[in-house]
Write a structure and sequence with these properties.
The complex is a heterodimer of chains A (about 450) and B (about 500). With about 450 residues, chain A is an alpha/beta fold. Helix content of chain A is about 45%, strand content about 15%. In chain A, the strands form four sheets. A six-stranded parallel sheet of chain A has the order 11-12-8-7-13-14, sandwiched between helices. Chain B folds into two domains: about 220 residues, Aldehyde Dehydrogenase, Chain A, domain 1, CATH 3.40.605; about 190 residues, Aldehyde Dehydrogenase, Chain A, domain 2 (3-Layer(aba) Sandwich). Classes of the chains: A alpha/beta (about 450), B alpha/beta (about 500).
C-alpha cells in the first residue's frame, strides 16, 4: 500500500504540476485553511493522544505552523528565484547564478510529542520547494495520525502529499523505497536506521534527534526569573519536548534556592495539585511512563515525585545532588523530572557539558556577557538560548537542528526550503569570445609557439 | 588497536586542545599549505606525471592553479566566513542578540580520488582547515605516487597531529570508516559512496559525497558547431576523459552528427597532433583495470574516429562513437575515459526525455544560442550543475557550489560553501533576564485573554526590517506632507497678499 502511494506521488511529481509557484501557493493556502478550520478537531485528537492541555495546542503547535505557512506564502517567490553570485574575471560577461530546484519525493517521518508541528513544518518547506511528500506520522499519537490522514487528503492534492499510517513494520517498508530526501524527527537509535536505509539509495537525510540539553544557572543571576522560565520550558507538554532543559547545572550554594524557586513557580503555574490543573499534561503511554519512573528509582525527590500509572501522570519532580553517572544522567529524560547536578563553577560546567554528546540545545542563565560568551565559545550544541529556554526555536530566521548525536541538517523558514531544494549551480556562457579560451587549449605551449612565430615575423620585417 | 584507530585518536586529542579555534592559527596553516603547493610544484607535477602521464602544464592548469586560488580565497575571507552572522529579528526579540555562529565540527575524514589526486583531496582540506577542524586525509592508493608524496611531504608543512595523511588500500579505508568522525567527505563512485554513508550512519556522522554519473551534452543544431565542438573536445579529453564533470556523451540531431564528428576530428588534431600517443599533453588511463573497462565499453558501437589503443601504455586514442543508442554498452556506466558516444535524437524534447529517464548527473551541458532553449533545459531537467556553451569551467567559479544531486552526490563545496559544509552553524539567541512581564502570557494558568495576546504577538510576527521600512516611509510621508503644506500655505499667503485682501 505504501509502495503504491510513493509510486503515485512520484508520478504526480513527474507530471510537473508542483513546478508553478501558483500551485504551491494554492496548496499552502489550503493547508492554512485546514489549520484554522479544524483547530478544534486537532485539539481533541491531541487530548486523546497525549492529554494535551487545551491552550498548549495553539501555543506550541498551531501558531507556529500558521506562521511558517504565512512566511512561505509571503517569501516563496523570493526563495525560488535564481540567486546571482559573485563572478570572477573569466565569467564577467556570463550569467552566473544558483537555481533552487525541487528534489522530488520527500519522506517526512513525524514524532508523537508535537505530532502536528513536527510533520507539518517540514511539509510546508517541502511544498514551497516544489516537492511531493509522503507523510508518515508517528503511530504513538494515533488519533492525530488518523486525523492528519483524513484532513490532508481533503485539503491538499491527494496524490502529491499522501499520508501513510502504521507502525514499525510500515515505516521499515517505506524506508526500503527510494526517496529524494528523508526528513526524520525522533530518537538517535532509529535515526541511525533511517540513515542506513537512506544510504542504500544515496538519499540525503535530515535527522532531528535529541539528547540531554543542559541548563546552567550562574549564581549571580536573578534566580527567581531564571527558575520561572526554566520551569515553564521543562514542564510544558509534561517534559516531552526535544529542546526541554533536561537537567540543571549550578553551584551547590544556590541549589536550595533553585529548588525553592521552582517549587514556588510550580505552585503558581499548576496549583497545589498539578493532577487537577487543566494546564498540566500526561505521559504519552504506559511504556514511557514506566521508563521515566524507573529512571527515578533510588532517588528521593525534593519536589513532586507522585505518580498515577492509571492516568500516566507524573507530578512535576525535581531531584537534587544527582550524581553525574546515575542512570538519570545517561539517557534523555523526556519527562517531567528535573535533576540538578552541582558543579564547582562555570569552568566545571563547561567541562561537564563537553564530556557528553553534543546536545540539541544549551541554556545559560547568566548576566555576565563575557562569561556567557566564553561558555558559548567553549561548548557546542545544536542551538543556544541565553537567559531563557527554547525560544531560539520560535525564530524562523534561525536554523533549527542538531549536531553530532543530536542530529544533522536544519529547518524552519527559508532553511526548510533550502534543505529540501537542490541548489543547482548555473553558468550560462556565450559561444562568442573564443579567443579568450585559447590559452587553455593544448598544446600548452601554443602561446609560446605563437609568440615565437610573431617574434620571427617581426624580426623579418 | 589498529594504526588507523591510533591516528584518529591522536587527531581528536589534538583537536580537543582547541588550537584550531583561533583564526590566526587556521590562516597560518593555510599559508603553509600554499607554500607547500608553490615550493613543491615540480615534485607534485612529477608524481602526477607518473600516476596519470599528465604534463607539467596540465597539472598546473587543472590541479595546483585552482587549489592556490582556493587557498588564497580562504585566507582572505576566513574572518568574514567565521564571524557571527546576525539574522532577521522579530518584534518579540527586538532587544535581543540573534545570530548564527559558525563552529568547527571536529575531526573530518577526507577520502580523495585518483583522477585529480591533489585538487580533489586538498580542496576539501582547505574548507576543513578554514572552518577550524582537524582532518584525516586518505588519498587514493591508485594514484600511488601522489599518495606517497602527500604522506611524506604534507607533515613537513602542516601540523602533523591535526592533519595526518593515512595511506593504504581498501582494508585501511574500511578500518578508517569504522572510526568515529564528525564529517566524512568522500569523492569517488556511487558503489563505494553507499558504503561510506552506511558506515557513517553507525555514528550519525554527516557526509558529503562527490560522486559521478553520465553528464549529457546537448548540441543544438543551430549553434556555432565549430566553437561548441572545440570546447566539448577540450572538456572531454582533458586528463584522458578521467574527469567527473567531463561531458560523458553527446545528444544531437542526426542531421548534424557528421559535422560534429568532423569538427571534433579537427580539434583533436589541433590539440593533440596527428599522433596523440607521442604528444606530451595527451594523458593515459590510470591503470590496466580501468583501461580494460573503458575498452570493453566500446564493444558493439561504431567507431567514427580514433579507437586505437595500446594496453602496455594504457593508451586509448581520443575516440568518438556514432549512432549510439540508449541500450549500447557504452551507455551502461560512466565512461571516465577518452570515448565520446554520440546519440541522435529528434530534437530537444527527446533529448530532455532521454536525460530524465536516467539518474541525475553531475552536470548537464547544453550548447545553443537560444536562451529560451537553455531555459527549458534548466527547468525540465535536474543535475548537480548546468553549464551552457562551455565545459568544466563552472568548477572554477568559487562562488558557485560544486556538488551533485541524487546519484551524483550530496553536499557541495568550493569557496564559502566548503567552509559552511564543514562547520556547524549554531543558532544563538541572547536574551536578558528582565522584561519578564512579556513572558507572562505564555505561562499557565492559561486563559482565553492571555491566548489573545499570544496570538497578537506571535501571529503578527513582523520582521524588524519591514518595521524599519514602514517607519521610514511614514517619516518621509510626514516630512513631505509638512514641506508641501508649508509651501502651499506660504504660497496661498503670497497670493492673497498679492490680490491685496482677504475674503470676508
Amino acid at each position: 500500500l505504501s509502495r503504491q502511494a510513493v509510486q503515485r506521488a512520484r508520478e504526480a511529481f513527474q507530471s510537473g504540476r508542483t513546478r508553478p509557484l501558483e500551485f504551491r501557493l494554492q496548496q499552502l493556502h489550503a493547508l492554512q485553511r485546514m489549520i484554522t478550520e479544524k483547530e478544534t478537531e486537532i485539539a481533541t485528537a491531541l487530548k486523546q493522544d497525549i492529554n494535551r492541555v487545551r491552550y498548549d495546542t495553539p501555543l506550541l503547535e498551531l501558531i507556529g505552523i500558521e506562521n511558517e505557512i504565512k512566511l512561505a506564502i509571503d517569501r516563496m517567490a523570493q526563495w525560488a528565484a535564481p540567486r546571482p553570485v559573485e563572478k570572477n574575471v573569466l565569467t564577467i560577461s556570463d550569467e552566473v547564478y544558483i537555481q533552487p530546484e525541487p528534489l522530488g519525493v520527500v519522506l517526512i517521518i513525524g514524532a508523537w510529542n508535537y505530532p502536528w508541528a513536527l510533520t507539518l513544518l517540514p511539509l510546508v518547506g517541502a511544498i514551497a520547494a516544489g516537492n511531493a511528500a509522503v507523510v508518515k506520522p508517528s503511530e504513538l499519537s494515533e488519533y492525530s495520525s488518523l486525523l492528519l490522514r483524513a484532513l490532508l487528503s481533503r485539503y491538499l492534492d491527494k496524490e502529491l502529499y499522501p499520508v501513510v499510517t502504521g507502525g514499525v513494520a510500515e515505516t521499515q517498508d517505506l524506508l526500503r523505497l527510494r526517496f529524494d530526501h528523508v526528513f526524520f524527527t525522533g530518537g538517535s537509535t532509529t535515526g541511525k536506521l533511517v540513515m542506513e536505509a537512506a544510504a542504500q539509495h544515496l538519499t540525503p537525510v535530515t535527522l532531528e534527534l535529541g539528547g540531554k540539553s543542559p541548563c546552567y544557572i550562574d549564581k549571580d543571576c536573578e534566580i527567581r526569573v531564571a527558575c520561572r522560565r526554566i520551569t515553564w520550558g521543562k514542564f510544558v507538554n509534561c517534559g516531552q519536548t526535544c529542546i526541554a532543559p533536561d537537567y540543571i547545572l549550578c553551584e551547590p550554594s544556590i541549589q536550595s534556592q533553585v529548588v525553592d524557586c521552582i517549587r514556588l513557580t510550580l505552585l503558581e503555574f499548576y496549583g497545589a495539585d498539578p493532577k487537577c490543573s487543566p494546564d498540566y499534561g500526561r505521559i504519552i503511554n504506559q511504556r514511557h511512563f514506566n521508563r521515566i519512573m524507573s529512571l527515578m528509582e533510588g532517588y528521593t525527590p525534593v519536589v513532586g515525585g507522585q505518580s498515577d500509572s492509571s492516568q500516566c501522570y507524573i507530578a512535576p519532580t525535581v531531584l537534587k545532588d544527582v550524581p553525574p553517572h546515575s542512570r538519570l544522567m545517561q539517557e534523555e529524560i523526556f519527562g517531567p523530572v528535573l535533576p540538578i547536578v552541582t558543579v564547582s563553577d562555570m569552568d566545571d560546567a563547561i567541562r561537564f557539558v563537553n564530556e557528553r554528546e553534543k546536545p540539541l540545545a544549551l541554556y545559560i542563565f547568566c548576566n555576565d556577557k563575557k562569561a556567557v560568551k566564553r561558555m558559548i565559545e567553549e561548548t557546542t550544541s545544536g542551538g543556544v538560548t541565553v537567559n531563557d529556554v527554547m525560544m531560539h526555536y520560535t525564530l524562523s530566521s534561525l536554523p533549527f537542528g542538531g549536531v553530532g548525536h543530536s542530529g544533522m541538517g536544519r529547518y524552519h523558514g527559508k532553511h526548510t526550503f533550502d534543505q529540501l531544494s537542490h541548489q543547482r549551480a548555473c553558468l550560462i556562457r556565450s559561444l562568442k569570445m573564443e579567443s579568450v579560451n585559447l590559452a587553455r587549449y593544448p598544446p600548452q605551449d601554443r602561446r609560446r609557439a605563437r609568440r615565437d612565430k610573431l617574434n620571427k615575423i617581426r624580426r623579418l620585417n | 588497536m589498529s594504526r588507523e584507530q591510533l591516528v584518529v585518536e591522536r587527531t581528536r586529542k589534538a583537536f580537543l586542545t582547541g588550537s584550531t579555534k583561533p583564526l590566526k592559527f587556521r590562516i597560518q596553516q593555510l599559508q603553509c599549505l600554499l607554500r607547500f603547493i608553490t615550493e613543491r610544484r615540480k615534485d607534485i607535477a612529477d608524481a602526477v606525471h607518473k600516476d596519470l602521464y599528465k604534463s607539467e602544464h596540465g597539472t598546473e592548469l587543472f590541479e595546483t592553479l585552482g587549489l592556490e586560488g582556493d587557498i588564497q580565497l580562504a585566507i582572505e575571507k576566513v574572518w568574514e566566513w567565521a564571524a557571527p552572522r546576525p539574522v532577521e529579528k522579530t518584534l518579540l526579540t527586538i532587544s535581543d542578540e540573534v545570530y548564527i555562529r559558525p563552529e568547527p565540527l571536529g575531526v573530518v575524514l577526507i577520502i580523495g580520488a585518483w583522477n585529480y589526486p591533489w585538487a580533489v583531496t586538498l580542496k576539501p582540506l582547505v574548507g576543513a582547515i578554514a572552518a577550524g577542524n582537524a582532518a584525516v586525509i586518505k588519498p587514493s592508493e591508485i594514484s600511488s605516487h601522489s599518495a606517497k608524496l602527500m604522506e611524506d611531504l604534507l607533515p613537513l608543512y602542516l601540523d602533523k597531529d591535526l592533519y595526518p595523511v593515512v595511506t593504504g588500500g581498501v582494508t585501511e579505508t574500511q578500518e578508517l570508516l569504522k572510526q568515529r568522525f564528525d564529517h566524512i567527505f568522500y569523492t569517488g563512485n556511487c558503489t563505494v559512496g553507499k558504503l561510506v554513508m552506511q558506515a557513517a550512519a553507525q555514528h550519525l556522522t554527516p557526509v558529503s559525497l562527490e560522486l559521478g554519473g553520465k553528464s549529457p551534452c546537448f548540441i543544438d543544431k543551430n549553434c556555432d558547431l565549430n566553437v561548441a565542438c572545440r570546447r566539448i573536445t577540450w572538456g572531454k579529453f582533458v586528463n584522458c576523459g578521467q574527469t567527473c564533470i567531463a561531458p560523458d556523451y553527446i545528444l544531437c540531431e542526426a542531421s548534424i552528427q557528421s559535422r560534429v564528428v568532423e569538427e571534433i576530428r579537427k580539434c583533436i588534431k589541433e590539440f593533440y597532433t596527428e599522433d596523440p600517443k607521442t604528444f606530451k599533453d595527451y594523458g593515459r588511463i590510470v591503470n590496466q583495470r580501468h583501461f580494460r573497462r573503458v575498452v570493453a565499453l566500446m564493444e558493439g558501437s561504431t567507431v567514427a574516429l580514433g579507437g586505437d589503443r595500446d594496453e602496455s601504455q594504457c593508451y586509448i586514442a581520443p575516440t568518438v562513437l556514432k549512432d549510439v543508442t540508449g541500450t549500447s554498452t557504452v551507455m551502461t556506466e560512466e565512461i571516465f575515459g577518452p570515448v565520446l558516444p554520440i546519440i541522435t535524437v529528434s530534437g530537444l524534447d527527446e533529448a530532455i526525455g532521454f536525460i530524465n529517464e536516467r539518474e541525475k548527473p553531475l552536470v548537464v551541458y547544453v550548447f545553443s544560442h537560444d536562451k529560451k532553449l537553455i531555459r527549458r533545459v534548466i527547468t525540465e531537467t535536474s543535475s548537480g550543475a548546468l553549464l551552457a556553451n562551455d565545459c568544466l569551467v563552472h568548477a572554477t567559479v568559487s562562488a558557485l557550489p560544486f556538488g551533485g544531486v541524487g546519484n551524483s552526490g550530496m553536499g557541495c563545496y568550493q569557496g564559502r560553501h566548503g567552509f559552511d559544509r564543514l562547520s556547524h552553524l549554531r543558532s544563538c539567541l541572547i536574551k536578558k533576564l528582565n522584561m519578564e512581564a512579556v513572558n507572562s502570557m505564555r505561562y499557565p494558568p492559561h486563559t482565553a485573554k492571555k491566548m489573545g495576546w499570544v496570538r497578537f504577538f506571535l501571529f503578527n510576527q513582523v520582521s524588524v526590517c519591514r518595521l524599519r521600512r514602514m517607519a521610514l516611509l511614514t517619516l518621509v510621508t510626514v516630512v513631505a506632507g509638512t514641506v508641501w503644506l508649508k509651501y502651499f500655505t506660504s504660497n496661498c499667503r503670497n497670493t492673497l497678499s498679492d490680490t491685496g485682501g482677504r475674503s470676508v
